[in-house]
Structures are given as C-alpha cells and as structure tokens.
Amino acid sequence: MTRPRAWVDGAARGNPGEAGFGVVFQTAEGEHRIGGYLGETTNNVAEYCGLLAALGWAERQGLRDLVLHSDSQLVVRQLAGAYRVKAPHLKPLFEAVLASRKRLPGLEVRHVPREQNRAADALANRAIDERLAPPTWLALPRNP
After folding, report:
1. pLDDT for 65-92, tens place per residue?
2. For residues 24 and 4, what is the distance between their CA atoms, to the nearest angstrom?
3. Which of 116, 120, 131, 144 is deepest in the core (most CB within 10 A)?
C-alpha cells in the first residue's frame, strides 16, 4: 500500500482578507476532502489552519504515517526549522502544529509547486465562496 497523502492549501482574498483552507486526502480507502471558511485573516494563517485540519483528520483516522504536500514555502521551511516563526500571530498556530506533529511520527512535509496543489487550492477558494463551516472537531486558536 502507498502511504496516505494530503494536499493542503490556504487562500486569502486580500492579505488580510476573506480566507479559507482546503485539504485533499488520498488513502487506501479513497479520497476525502475538508474545507473551511475562516473569515478575515492572512494567507499564512489560512495555510496553517489547513495544516492543522490535515493533521487533526489524520489523527482522528488513527494514521501514524502521512506525506503532506503544501505549496507554501514559508510553512514548509518553518516546519523544517530553516525559517524562524517571527510573526506573533503565527506562533500559536505553529506551536499547535508541532504538538499535533508529535502524535504523527511518520509525517513527511514536502513543498510542491502550486500547479500540483490545484485541488486543495480550489477547495480553499470554494470554502470562501460558499462560507463552508470548518469541521466541528477542528479546534483552531481564537482570532488567529
């Protein structure tokens, strides 16, 4: 069996602006999609919220292994330790990701070109257009 995979994206119309996230999973059981409208926030916050949604869903499914794809160089490099998290509003999100990451020992985060992340991007934009409520199980920091 191939490893479970997730493609994650965040979108903001303006920065800050109306924002949403999208996550597309591919597992042995099939494809699963998660999207959520975030209100007004930054693109980087939306990217982190998408990542938290992916990690939360993986944990709820009992996954211990996941290849996660993101087109956000900032997020991928911050998670790799190549960039520091300087923005105060991103620190709680980053710390929440680190805590969740500990429960997913087989997590691999890869940067991909935007063209390879189209499905997650489309879902993030649909979340904005349709004001899709994030999953009820997803706990996001207040007013990120």
Report:
1. 999 999 999 999 999 999 999 999 999 9
2. 11
3. 120
Per DSSP, the chain holds a count of helices (H) and strands (E) of 4, 5
Asked if residue 138 belongs to a domain, the reply is: no
Backbone CA torsion sign across 98, 103, 104, 106? positive
Distance of CA 33 to the CA centre of its chain: 12
Task: Considering only CA atoms, give the Rg of the chain.
Answer: 14
How far apart, in whole angstroms, are the C-alpha atoms of residue 10 and residue 53?
11
Place of tokens 């919220």: 49
Domain that holds residue 31: 5-130
Whole-prediction pTM: 0.94
